[in-house]
Amino acid sequence: MTRIESRPEWEGTQGKNRGLTSVLCFRVRAQPSSLTVKAGETVEFVNNKAFPHNVVFDEDAVPDGVNADAISHEDYLNGPGEKVSNKFDKAGTYEFYCEPHQGAGMQGKIIVQ
Q1: Does 97 or 61 have the greater pLDDT score?
Q2: Nearest to 43 by CA among 34, 52, 51
Q3: pLDDT tens digits, residue range 63-84?
Q4: What is the pLDDT of residues 4-53, one digit of tens each?
Q5: pTM of the entire predicted model
Q6: Is 69 helix (H, G, I), strand (E, B) or coil?
Q7: Contact, 39 vs 21, CB < 8 A?
Q8: Which residue in the list 1, 25, 53, 73 is annotated as catalytic?
């Protein structure tokens, strides 16, 4: 796996194995601000440190025909190592945020090619 960024509040790694991309969440900002993956890849969101976090997709910022509620994970990840994942089959941009920390800038986007 190749590390995109190791210091920021959202830490991302993009994997070459098994079509997995990981996004590790902690603190209160989103960096990198976006991840680019191929259609069919899975993105795993992992609570790396602090809590609580969740992953909510903006209904106005997902591709047409995608149900933002169906891919959101509104239940909180409260402990280190807790995770949720999504497989992204439809190309487009998916914007997401952490509900408790959205006002502090914990948001990002996944670009599916």
Answers
A1: 61
A2: 34
A3: 999 999 999 999 998 877 788 8
A4: 222 334 444 444 444 455 555 544 455 556 788 889 988 888 777 667 88
A5: 0.77
A6: helix
A7: no
A8: 53
Is 25 catalytic? The answer is no
According to CATH, what is the number of the domain 2-112? 2.60.40.420
Does the annotation mark 106 as catalytic? yes
C-beta separation of 88 from 51 below 8 A = no
Which amino acid is present at 94? Y
pLDDT score for 20? 52
User: Phi first, then psi: what are they for 26, rounded to 5°?
Assistant: -170, 160
C-alpha 106: how far from its chain's center?
Answer: 10
Whether 53 is catalytic: yes
Candidates 1, 25, 73, 101; catalytic one: 101
Query: Reduced to 3 DSSP states, what percent helix, strand and coil does the chain have, rounded to the nearest 5?
Result: 10, 50, 45
Domain ranges (residues) in the chain: 2-112
